[in-house]
Amino acid sequence: MNVTLVPFGNAKYTSTGELSCQHGPDECEANSYEQCVIAFYPEFERYFPFYKCVEADIDSQRTIPERATQCAEQASLDVAKIKACVSDRPRAAALQKKFQGLTPSNHK
Question: CA 59 from chain center: how many Å?
Fold first, then answer.
């Protein structure tokens, strides 16, 4: 089975170029963490434990960075590398655009 996860969902770019996620800024931030993990660890077996962990804890009171840190540690991923990617605005924006292009709803 070949699985491709695309953390972008129903996000849209506004007329001013701002990214707007269906469930608010936390969703955009979670997408960014997930996108960075997939960029660094493109094999499904490597990124899926992180992805599943972040999504399973979506309704917790913990912040996205707190969840991402714990999930990365549990999945044996480089937390510092992932956080640096999310903090690098041009890189994170480029990944958002990349995943936007992979989103089936954007292929209509």
Answer: 16
Which single residue is written with the structure tokens 């992180």?
50
State residue 84's pLDDT score.
98
Q: 12 — phi, psi (to 5°)?
A: -145, 155
CA distance 14 to 71: 31
Strand 19-20 relative to strand 12-13: parallel, antiparallel, unpaired?
A: antiparallel
pLDDT at 105: 66
Low-confidence residues of the chain: pLDDT under 50: 107-108
**What sign does the dihedral 9-19-41-73 (CA atoms) show?**
negative
* Range list of β-strands (E), 6-96: 12-13, 19-20
